[in-house]
Amino acid sequence: MRRTLAKEISKSGTALHEGATVNMTLSPVEPGTGIVFRRSDLGGREIPALYDRVGETRLGTVIAEGGATVGVIEHLMAAVAGAQIDDLVVTLDGPEPPILDGDALSYFQLIEEAGTREQAGARKAIKVIKSVEITIKDAQIRLLPSDAPEYTFDLDYSNTKAIGKQSYTMTFTRENFARDIAPARTFGFMHELDMLHKMGLGRGASLTNTIAIEGDNVVNKDIMRFPDEFVRHKILDAIGDMALAGGPLIARFEGVKSGHATNNAVLRALFADAANYTVVEI
Ligand SMILES: [Zn+2]
What we know:
The protein has 282 residues and is an alpha+beta fold. The chain is 22% helix and 34% strand.
């Protein structure tokens, strides 16, 4: 059975880049709709959350259609995938969902508060049957056939002792996601924030929603939830970006220093050849 929300739920907060307050409403919707973003401030323009609508990936994953965009969708998409939601409308009166705590747990808890319900129609998953590999500079992703969805990530920030090298592997279940991945906050470097501010971006970033790194130190260590929070957040981002496949992805995801651009590129490579995957009902 497919899954949607049991009832509508709203939350307001600051947009990470725009800095303005955004009002977000998550609404149940008819089976087969998929995940759709709606810009109420642009006459209700709709953008399906699908990999082929992704344009910009430099500062978060941005989807676009008919001149409307929604940016930084990956944390919300990770929560939606973690909660196993198939059909949902996300209405926003601005260009990004509110960043909330900089994690996926804020959205996941909102979904749990609304509750979910099953509805007619089968869940269709995309099962990888042939390995797909993408390399962009020193970043690499491999999608390998697997009976269960798995994520493994190697991160290397050897230039700062605050992060260093971290690795993490997880089997993607609702429980593992909620406990081990969803709480992991986004992170950023103070010198990059200065640059973003000059570009009028990152205006909603704060020491409560972003782990801030300066040199070899974490500025706000008090908000950290895991010693290896950085690599866990990279898996969170990957889960959110893979949710743009249009259904649960059954594969082993192996990421090395990869990010939103590589995540989108690997989905495009996967769907470029019908021999790479099969659609299965789960
Ligand atoms: Zn992120």
